[in-house]
Amino acid sequence: MLRRAALIAPLLLAAASQSRADFGTSLEEAEKESRSRGKLMLVYIWSPACHVCKGLNEKVWPNLAVQTELENWSAVKVDSNDAVKSKYRWKVDDVPQIRVIDPEGNEFRTLTRSDIPGGNSPDKMVEALQSLRQAWDDELAGRKFEWESGAAEAKTKSKERGRPIAWFASEAASPGSLNRTYPQFTDKVPAAASKKFVCVPVSKANTDFWEKYKPQVVPGFVFTDLDGVELHRCGLLSGEDLAKEFDLAAAKFEATNIVDPAKALERALANWDAALRGQVEQDKLDAGQKVIDANEPKTVKALARGFADPSIKVKEMLIPAMTGIDVQAGLPELIKWVQKETNTKLAVKGWDAVGQTGDLRAVPALTDNVLDAQSAEVSNARIRALGNMRDKKVVDFLVELPFKIKGKGRGPGGGGGQRQAIKNSLNKLTGQDFGEDWLEWKKWWRDNQKAFKFE
Question: Which of 104, 204, 253, 311 is 20 to 30 Å from the Cα of 33, by its Cα?
Answer without folding.
Answer: 311
